[in-house]
Structure formats: structure tokens, C-alpha cells
Write a structure and sequence with these properties.
5 helices, transmembrane helix, Protein rolling stone, transmembrane, Rost, single chain, membrane
């Protein structure tokens, strides 16, 4: 599928970047994050099919003669069964990639805990700090604020 050397370099560089980023950053990674790329991929597949059905050409190098009807050769809607199978396989590979990234995340957490001990009192990431801050009084909803006010009014004054 990756026929040119430049295509191989670009895809390999992206993969290496994601894996190194996953091992270095402190952001938590959840298995359910897989729904974001799956949703995006599904939207792209639907867009690609609609684009094809409306005869949208993809021009190569700006010339009219170089116009072709496909964004990708392997996603040809001239053969809808093959295109749908390609989309399903891509979604399956996305799930596999997310599971591999989650395993790398858990491995990173285990290495951190082995090196620095059990870190129950420490925050994993800025996201968790935001969650903790959102539970403070300044971020409460109106209903929560009113409830706190009612509770405070019922307390006896010393």
C-alpha cells in the first residue's frame, strides 16, 4: 500500500511520534478514546462515498487531464463491497492500535510506579487537576451552589 519511499517515511514518522509522545507525556489514556478516531474515520468514509457519488474529481497537479475519481486507490467506490470491507478493516485496525497504545500507557504507569513508588497522592496529569478544580465551589452549577447554601444555613452558628 505504501509504495513510495516518501509515503513510508511519512507514515513511519507519524507512528514513531505517537508512540514516543505516549511514553513521554503525562496525559491519561483510556481505551474508550478509540471512539474518537472511529467516529472521525466513519465521517470521512461517509464523506468520501458521498463525494464519489456526486462525481467529485480529485485533480492531480492542477491539470484537467490528470483528474481522477478517487481520493485513494484502495477506497474505490466503483466496487462498493471492497470499499466497505476496507472501511471495516480500517476501523478494526483502529481498535487494535488503540489497545496497543493503551497497553503502552499502562506499561509507562507501571514503570513510573516501580521507579517512584506508589503515587496515590499525586496527580497523573493536568486533566485530573482540572477535574479536581471543577469540584470546587467556584465551578459548581447553580443548583449545587444553592444546595451548599441551604446546608450552610442549617448549620448551627457557634
Amino acid at each position: 500500500m505504501l509504495k513510495t519511499t516518501m509515503s513510508q517515511v511519512k507514515h513511519t514518522a507519524n507512528t514513531v511520534y505517537v508512540v514516543v509522545d505516549m511514553l513521554v507525556i503525562g496525559a491519561p489514556f483510556r481505551v474508550f478514546h478509540m471512539f474518537f478516531p472511529i467516529t472521525l474515520g466513519s465521517c470521512y468514509a461517509i464523506f468520501n462515498a458521498i463525494y464519489f457519488l456526486n462525481d467529485g474529481p480529485t485533480r492531480m497537479f492542477g491539470d484537467e487531464e490528470g483528474a481522477r475519481h478517487l481520493a485513494y486507490n484502495f477506497l474505490s467506490w466503483h466496487k462498493p463491497v471492497e470499499a466497505i470491507i476496507t472501511c471495516v478493516v480500517a476501523m478494526f485496525l483502529c481498535v487494535i492500535a488503540q489497545i496497543v497504545l493503551f497497553v503502552l500507557f499502562r506499561l509507562r504507569v507501571c514503570v513510573w510506579q516501580k521507579l517512584y513508588g506508589d503515587c496515590e497522592g499525586r496527580m497523573d496529569s493536568e486533566l485530573q487537576n482540572i477535574v479536581v478544580m471543577s469540584q470546587s465551589a467556584s465551578y459548581n452549577t447553580i443548583d449545587e451552589g444553592l444546595e451548599e447554601k441551604r446546608v450552610a444555613e442549617k448549620r448551627p452558628v457557634k
